[in-house]
Structure to design on (505 residues):
């Protein structure tokens, strides 16, 4: 399944609870609604449009200068028939470009090839932009659904992160646009699938492969941190494999200042409710077999046993203050799963999982295999040392890339040129529109994997909408395209403040 999926937000249980609660207009708090409608925000929207115009004027001037330079080099006179013919061709291209600028981007300008993702709030499609031939993953979400489920902020943050980076470690945005009912994010298509699929197929990774992949994941997260964001909900589904076998981070919807208060309260309640005297201590083989069986039965759950926050640190679960180090805890849990075949705190039931999370420092134990045929799965000392330095209390946890590289487990890796290193697995792709590493949404067996996702969608649809549930001003500045990007860069150069300014506000 393509994991840039719009299924963020409350779990099934939380959605059902919300049906009886009032929903704030637009999914925004009063002060937020006042902010997006303020003169300051409207002014910035106008400035953004001005920068776009400046960008167009600049690039048009550059093209004209190149045309004049070419004519002068060939000593063409303006009265020369060759010059006149070339000028008519040049002017015709400019008219086409200007006409395109006047045309708003619409969903019918994309040809849908196949569905590659499904979430409670929308769908993801492999698509091709008709006029340019660009292939993209087109994410479609309904505005009213986002509003009533308090997801508008998360989508806007995701859009801002996608436009603020050109890093090969993060999925990039090609276009963002909207119509009266939906918003769309056209992102680069990453054809190799996600790490959940990889783990479902492999179970356990070789130590050298686990080291390579987790190192690339740390590089991806470090790029997000450099932008000033904390992801806070990292899991294998958030990492994609590109065409060369390297890692890209995706799904930035929760990388913002605060989780949904209802979700925080729900998680705190589940932790407090967990009974310490009912901890179940299982053997390594039992836990691995149990977890793999659950994954085979429910590979794409929205929030079931295997969809619990297995990778979230205690401070996030309890709604306490946290730092960038929370993402390092999550990556420590993913590394553990790479090598053990199950997350460190997974249980046979939701209650068991929550009890494990509550007592994480007791439950976290080194996997031990005693069966001779399984001895190869035993974890090395350096790997276990790295895990315990990551899955640790917030005061002693490794929390930046420099400290991570000093760990013996990572000492052999060239962090500076990981993307130039041969990846352990390179997807076998037949073309740029190969969807073989994603679920087939025309196949009933694959569709069955999404039973709980569809149930969540039905519960979301059942939440009562209010008339005028969101204000049009909420989505001001959402539209994004390459012209907007170029305009921002020109604006910065005019000010002499740097190379690129991707977002206006």
């Amino acid at each position: 399944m393509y994991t840039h999926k719009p299924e963020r937000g409350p779990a099934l249980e939380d959605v059902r609870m919300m049906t009886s609660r009032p929903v704030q207009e637009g999914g925004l708090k009063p002060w937020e609604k006042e902010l997006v409608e303020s003169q300051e925000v409207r002014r910035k929207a106008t400035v953004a449009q001005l920068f776009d115009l400046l960008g167009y004027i600049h690039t048009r001037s550059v093209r004209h200068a190149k045309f004049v330079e070419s004519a002068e080099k060939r000593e063409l006179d303006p009265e020369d028939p060759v010059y006149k013919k070339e000028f008519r061709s040049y002017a015709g291209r400019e008219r086409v470009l200007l006409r395109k600028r006047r045309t708003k981007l619409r969903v019918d300008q994309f040809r849908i090839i196949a569905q590659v993702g499904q979430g409670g709030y929308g769908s993801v499609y492999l698509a091709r932009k008709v006029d340019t031939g660009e292939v993209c993953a087109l994410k479609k979400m309904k505005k009213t659904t986002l509003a009533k489920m308090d997801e508008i902020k998360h989508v806007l943050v995701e859009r801002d992160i996608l436009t603020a980076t050109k890093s090969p470690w993060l999925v990039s945005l090609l276009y963002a646009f909207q119509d009266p009912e939906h918003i769309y994010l056209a992102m680069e298509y990453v054809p190799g699938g996600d790490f959940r699929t990889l783990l479902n197929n492999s179970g356990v990774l070789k130590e050298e492969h686990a080291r390579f992949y987790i190192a690339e994941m740390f590089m991806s997260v470090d790029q997000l941190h450099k932008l000033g964001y904390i992801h806070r909900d990292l899991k294998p589904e958030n990492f994609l494999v590109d065409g060369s076998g390297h890692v890209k981070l995706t799904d930035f919807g929760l990388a913002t200042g605060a989780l949904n208060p209802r979700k925080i309260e729900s998680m705190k309640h589940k932790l407090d409710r967990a009974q310490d005297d009912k901890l179940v201590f299982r053997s390594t083989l039992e836990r691995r077999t149990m977890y793999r069986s659950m994954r085979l039965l429910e590979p794409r759950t929205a929030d079931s046993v295997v969809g619990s926050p297995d990778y979230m640190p205690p401070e996030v679960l309890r709604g306490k203050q946290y730092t960038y180090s929370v993402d390092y805890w999550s990556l420590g849990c993913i590394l553990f799963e790479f090598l053990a075949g199950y997350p460190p705190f997974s249980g046979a039931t939701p209650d068991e999982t929550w009890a494990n999370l509550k007592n994480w420092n007791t439950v976290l134990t080194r996997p031990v295999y005693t069966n001779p045929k399984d001895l190869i799965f035993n974890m090395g000392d350096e790997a276990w040392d790295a895990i315990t330095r990551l899955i640790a209390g917030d005061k002693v946890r490794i929390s930046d890339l420099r400290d991570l590289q000093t760990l013996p487990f990572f000492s052999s890796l060239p962090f500076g040129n990981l993307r130039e290193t041969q990846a352990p697995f390179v997807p076998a792709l037949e073309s740029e529109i190969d969807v073989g590493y994603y679920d087939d949404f025309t196949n009933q067996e694959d569709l069955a994997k999404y039973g709980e996702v569809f149930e969540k969608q039905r519960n979301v649809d059942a939440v009562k909408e209010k008339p005028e549930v969101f204000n049009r001003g909420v989505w001001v500045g959402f539209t994004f395209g390459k012209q907007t990007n170029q305009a921002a860069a020109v604006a910065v150069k005019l000010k002499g403040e740097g190379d690129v300014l991707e977002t206006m506000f």
